[in-house]
Design goal:
- This protein has 13 helices and 14 strands.
- It is of the alpha/beta class.
- The strands form three sheets. It has a seven-stranded mixed β-sheet, sandwiched between helices.
- It starts with 9 loop residues before the first strand and ends in a 9-residue tail after the last helix.
- The N terminus is likely disordered.
Length: 427
């Protein structure tokens, strides 16, 4: 990884300032959880309020002295700000406090660096780190302005800063090439699934809402799931069988967070493409949270940013085992369409209702019929089997194959058109 991390937890002073100029404030409790997820050991949480940030140090002189005293008293190694700091503010704070200073974006990047496991995930994190750091390089070279001249020391005249920036730009270029290859492989996989007419279901939701637990419950998988922010980063795909429907692909994705740094949205665009191409979104919500509406809105904002806001979506309220007297239930709109379900991925309560709802949403206008295929139409027969649409098959004495099928009408029409056959009317 681009940054080296210490082996143990670092003592940290946390800072949160309520700004009158900002209507949408960050959550201090979530920030403390982010700090602990990164491995920090908070020793003090300093809070305050201002009309607007100070241009030089973000905080005023009195609050700056309070932070400096706390750093000295607790021998803190790190000061974390629940805000976005400019490079100059970060440099000025480090100079005054005599310790490392990290803003909210840097903290989230650090957590991502710890969690990434796949080759793609590591590339994406490193790209975001480099792009975030390139504007902050100056603080590491304040003792150098220009390389010394003299015999044997005269060079191209580049500053050390410029050399570092050039190396980082080259590394960013190489990473983007690697990610392009990953995107090409993903696109090839999507085309293969499209040819097999297998729909994709994508899990989305705020971080720590229980997406990976739900993924494991649905797919019988053992992906990493923990009660911490950003427990999983790498997109995972599994093929599942839905009752009364057939095969589908289930995708687990990175969790969202309020004001997810734009650099991360861009870096993880290859992973998030699985969401934008899905046939159905399962928006997983922590039902036990005191403010689920806020987190739902934050996820919707990210979905809007990546172009997935218009996709068909089912709200999944998870963790009802933490709520007294809450039973699993499937809620429908006035037309009978599933819109919301309450369940527990941990206990399995409500899982049959979820599978039923998914089957209904993916199988709207489902066709159940028998079709007759000639021996030379074996490819269509194979595609119907691959789609999990065949429930029974009979071979007639004349060699014709009679298939009892069940699948969405749009899928059947597309299959028939691909084989040069006219779509069949009726149901």
């Amino acid at each position: 990884m681009f940054f080296e991390r210490p082996d143990g937890g670092e003592t940290a002073v946390l800072v949160h300032i309520d700004l009158e100029a900002e209507q949408d404030q960050e959550d201090p409790l979530e920030f403390e959880e982010l700090a602990r997820s990164a491995g920090a050991v908070p020793v003090l949480f300093i809070k305050g309020s201002r009309k607007k940030p100070d241009a030089g140090h973000f905080v005023g002189s009195g609050k700056l002295d309070e932070i400096a005293a706390a750093v000295k008293e607790h021998q803190a190694e790190l000061v974390l700000f629940n805000h976005s700091l400019s490079p100059s503010q970060e440099r000025n704070l480090e100079k005054h406090l005599q310790c490392r200073v990290l803003d909210r974006t840097g903290l989230i990047l650090d957590i991502f660096a710890q969690r990434a496991r796949s080759y793609e995930g590591k590339l994406q994190v490193e790209l975001a780190q480099l792009e975030h750091t390139v504007t902050r390089l100056k603080r590491g070279w304040t003792h150098l302005d220009r390389q010394k001249g003299g015999i044997g020391l005269r060079g191209a005249g580049e500053t050390q800063l410029e050399l570092d920036q050039r190396m980082i730009r080259q590394r960013i270029k190489n990473i983007n090439k690697g990610l392009e290859k990953v995107r090409a492989q993903r696109e090839q996989g999507r085309r293969s699934r499209s040819r097999a007419d297998i729909p994709t279901i994508s899990l989305v939701g705020y971080t720590n809402a229980g997406k990976s637990s739900l993924f494991n419950a649905m797919a019988g998988a053992e992906t990493y799931a923990a009660d911490q922010l950003f427990a999983t980063l790498d997109s995972t795909l599994r093929r599942i069988q839905l009752p009364s429907f057939g095969a589908a692909i289930l995708a687990d994705t990175v969790g969202f967070i309020s004001h997810l740094p734009h650099k991360l949205v861009e870096a993880f665009r290859a992973t998030l493409e699985e969401t934008t191409r899905a046939d159905l979104l399962l928006h997983v919500i922590d039902a036990a949270n005191e403010h689920p509406e806020f987190f739902t809105e934050q996820v919707n904002e990210v979905l809007e940013e990546i172009g997935a806001a218009q996709l068909q979506c089912l709200l999944v309220y998870n963790k009802i085992d933490l709520l007294p007297d809450r039973e699993p239930v499937l809620e429908r709109d006035q037309g009978g369409k599933p819109v919301r379900i309450w369940l527990s991925a941990r206990t399995g309560a409500g899982m049959p209702l979820l599978l039923q709802a998914i089957s209904e949403l993916l199988g709207q206008d489902v066709v159940e019929r028998r079709i007759e295929l000639r021996p030379e139409q074996g490819r269509l027969r194979a595609r119907l089997y691959a789609r999990g649409a065949v429930h029974h098959e009979d071979v007639n004495p004349d060699g014709m194959v009679s298939l009892a099928i069940r699948l969405p009408r749009s899928d059947l029409d597309r299959l028939l058109e691909d084989e040069g056959l006219a779509p069949q009317a009726g149901g």
